[in-house]
Amino acid sequence: MEASGSASAPTHPDIELEPPEWQPRAIWVGARQLCGAAAFFFLAFVFAYFYLRSLDLDKDWKIGHNINPSLGLGVAIVVALVLSAALLRAASVRPELTVRAGLVSGVLLLTAVVLQVVAWTKLGFGPASGGYASVYVGWTIFYAVFALMSAYWIETQVATAWRRRRHGVAPTPADVLTDETLTRANLEACSFFWGFYVAIGVVTFVILYLV
């Protein structure tokens, strides 16, 4: 029996490749979808916060004394995050700033995570100290973990830009779409997501520290 590809599974030469000009658009859409996923994930903590606070049937919203995180550290974390997002956005729109601004953005991101770890060590409560305490600990832990993932994403963008500058990569006209354009599209997607994620961090600060 002669082996041949079936009609429903065409062989490789018959597969029509995706047009290269679609790739930047796919990256753009993927970043926005990632923002939506992050928003829905942390929406669960927003719901838990207001639900437990409004219900509070057993008066266990805050159990014990000093169930309040350090406001000063909270402000420092938010300032570091906002500056990080602003610098990364500048890096995405001004190629000459990509390496320097991106690097400082990553350092500020890691600084915010370190400050959050310091804030945990200074808490006068644990996750079992009521509804507020459990929401605070869970929310900030997940936020810090995802921030570290974003730090890796930022680092790859900065490293790519630095490598191109160091080796003097000058793409030929045929390579412009697959090289320079995709590099800028990836950086824009990264900066957009990080800006959105920092906005979630600002909402986190307002709810956990000020509301």
Summary tags:
211 residues; mainly alpha; Four Helix Bundle (Hemerythrin (Met), subunit A); 5 helices; 0% strand; disordered N terminus
Give the helix/strand layout.
Layout: H1 23-55, H2 71-93, H3 98-121, H4 131-167, H5 177-210
Describe this structure as you would to a colleague.
- The protein contains 5 helices and no strands.
- It is mainly alpha-helical.
- It has a single domain, classed as Four Helix Bundle (Hemerythrin (Met), subunit A).
- The longest helix is centred in the C-terminal third of the chain and has 37 residues, at 131-167.
Produce a short descriptive summary.
The protein is an all-alpha fold. The chain is 72% helix and 0% strand.
The span between the termini is 74 Å
The amount of beta strand, in percent, is under 5%
Rg result? 23 Å
Structural class: mainly alpha
> What is the number of domains?
1
Q: Largest beta sheet, briefly?
A: none
